[in-house]
Amino acid sequence: MSQPLAAGSLQGKTALVTGSSRGIGADTVRYLAEAGADVVINFRNKAPRAEKLAAELRELGARVLVVGADLTDPTSVQAMFSEVERTFGSLDVLVLNASGGMESGMAEDYALKLNRDAQVGVLESALPLLGRGARVVFVTSHQAHFIRTTPTMPEYEPVARSKRAGEDALREHIPALEERGIDFVVVSGDMIEGTITATLLERANPGAISARRESAGRLYNVSEFAAEVALAAVEPIPEDHTRLVGDTDSFQGE
Fold first, then answer.
1. Average of per-residue pLDDT values in the chain
2. Burial class of residue 133 in the structure, from the number of CB atoms within 10 Å of its CB (0-12 exposed, 13-18 middle, 19+ buried)
3. Between β-strands 183-189 and 91-96, what pairing exists: parallel, antiparallel or unpaired?
4. C-alpha span between 10 and 37 (Å, rounded)
C-alpha cells in the first residue's frame, strides 16, 4: 500500500479505529501507525486477526493496543476507553468505521442500534479523552449519505437508512464538539471493491457491483479508500464537514 500520510505527521498522537481488525479499518489503522501514531485496534470477534495486525504494526515501531468491544454494549465500550486511558492517557483521532446490518441472524433493529445508537455512544464515551485539536471521523457510503434523495438497492436500504440516521445524530453534536475544539468530518465513499458489504450485496443482487462500477467509471478498493479515511484525520475540514470519495454524479444532492 502507498503511504497517504507524511511519515511522522502523527508522531505523539493516539488514534482509535473501530472495527479495525480487517478491511477498511485495518488498512486505516495501518496508515495511521505508519505516520507515527500510537494506535488502538478495536474488534468485536476477530481477536486472532487483530493480534496479527498488531504484531505487524509493532514491527514498524508503533505502540499498539488491541481491545475487543461490542459497540452496541455501553459497558463494553466504556471498558474499552478505560483501557485506552490507562495505556495512552488520551485520544487524538477517533475513526468511527465499524458498521453493519446485513449480517444474518441479527434482530430487526440491529442495524439502527449499531449504525446510529452505537456511533453516538462511542463518541460520548470517548469525549473525556478527546482534547482540543482532536478529530472525529465518521465513515459512511454514498448509498447511505444520499439515501434521502437517491434510492439504493432494496437489500441495502435498511442499512443505508440506519447509517444516515447515525450520520445525522453525530452531526447534531458538531456545535458541542466545536466548543471543545474537536473537529468532526464525514468520509463518504461509493461501493468499495472487496468489502464484506459489497460481497453480500453481490450475493443478494448478482451483477450489482459490476453495474455500479460501469456507472461510476471505477470503484475504489479497500486500501485506496482507507487512504482517504486516514487523510481525513489530518487534512482541513470542508465547510460542510463532508469528504466525498469517488463518483457522485449518480447521486442527487442531499
1. 90
2. exposed
3. unpaired
4. 5
